[in-house]
Write a structure and sequence with these properties.
Blueprint lengths: L3 H18 L3 H6 L3 H16 L6 H31 L4 H11 L3 H27 L12 H48 L6 H4 L1 H24 L8 H11 L9 H11 L3 E7 L2 E8 L9 H31 L1
Antiparallel strand pairs: 1-2
Helix pairs in contact: 1-5, 1-7, 1-12, 3-7, 4-5, 4-7, 6-7, 6-12, 7-9, 7-11, 7-12, 9-10, 9-11, 9-12, 10-11
């Protein structure tokens, strides 16, 4: 296993590589992305062990056993990779490359920016088309404010579970922690829904994903709060708003970065939303904030995201420096 300070230095390099290169489409057209492989495993398990002839109790048991096996195998793969790479000359370069693959700084920025650009170039139709790629709500019921709000919420939430959380688990447990986290997060995204099909089978994946994302969601909210002065706000005010609003979010984790982002930008996020087949009537994050949003607000959210990721990298750098000199 990587020691804490060593992991911090490698993580700092991985964050830099990911921010610079991201996910090259040419590479992943030739070989499957590891997250795609996780998705195939989850899909097979869903087909084989989540059949209509089983009772809800059986499906819940099978889903729990599947998750346990997935986590165990992911940890094992991570341990083997780390042991092998640490034994090779320049093997730490391989560790940095693998870590960078599982981070999503640049790709998240690109997907959210695509919504802004779609609104700017093609109007509402372009924005709806782009936002449908990153959120699950019904795009046809979104106006310009709704499209912009959805993109900003996605930016905030995925900053936590797409960047801060994998970084946190790599820092704590090295490649085993990083790979196991991404496996759990992929399972949750595919089967962790409160639907008739997945409510029982995906129960364990959803609950465990909530648990492993708990520290990173708070940290990401803190990183966003630390960027507040750049946008004319105060760190203390943003932290206060986040603590007030986040617990009212339907997710135990997504509310923290979303509430922080809402406070930093001075806008209202979340609130009533429409998904295919149903609607939710949730409270707003930062309810006193501006509710009429447009593409310029997405640009401001992306700027806040970049600042928060810079703060995160700075903190990781401090950990690495402390390991060298203390």
């Amino acid at each position: 296993m990587l020691i804490f300070g060593d992991a911090a230095l490698l993580l700092l390099l991985a964050l830099f590589v990911d921010a610079l290169i991201g996910d090259p489409p040419a590479l992943w057209r030739r070989i499957p992305h590891p997250v795609v492989l996780f998705g195939k495993i989850v899909e097979i398990a869903d087909q084989d062990f989540n059949t209509p002839d089983l009772t809800a109790k059986q499906r819940k048991l099978y889903g729990t056993l599947f998750l346990a096996g997935l986590v165990f195998c992911s940890l094992l793969v991570g341990v083997l990779l780390e042991v092998i790479l640490r034994g090779l000359p320049y093997g730490r370069i391989g560790i940095v490359a693998i870590a960078a693959v599982f981070l999503a700084q640049k790709s998240l920025h690109q997907h959210v920016a695509a919504v802004r650009d779609g609104l700017a170039r093609e109007g509402l139709a372009g924005g709806r088309k782009a936002v449908a790629m990153i959120v699950g709500r019904d795009p046809e019921q979104l106006d310009e404010s709704g499209v912009s709000r959805a993109a900003i919420e996605s930016c905030a939430e995925n900053a936590a579970d797409g960047v801060t959380a994998p970084a946190f688990w790599f820092l704590l447990l090295g490649l085993p922690g990083l790979i196991a986290y991404k496996a759990v997060n992929t399972a949750d995204s595919m089967i962790g829904h409160k639907t008739e099909r997945h409510g029982a089978f995906g129960w364990a994946s959803a609950r465990f994903d909530d648990l492993v994302n708990l520290p990173a969601s708070r940290l990401c909210g803190l990183f966003l709060a630390l960027s507040a002065p750049v946008f004319g706000g105060g760190i203390g005010r943003t932290l206060s708003d986040m603590r007030r609003d986040a617990p009212s979010h339907r997710s135990p984790n997504a509310g923290w970065p979303e509430a922080a982002m809402a406070s930093v930008l001075g806008v209202a996020l979340a609130g009533p939303r429409a998904y295919p087949g149903y609607k939710v009537d949730d409270p707003y994050m930062n309810p006193q904030g501006r509710r009429e949003l447009d593409a310029s607000d997405i640009s401001r959210a992306l700027a806040a995201y970049r600042w928060a990721m810079a703060v995160q990298a700075f903190v990781v750098g401090l950990v690495a420096i402390a390991h060298v000199y203390l």
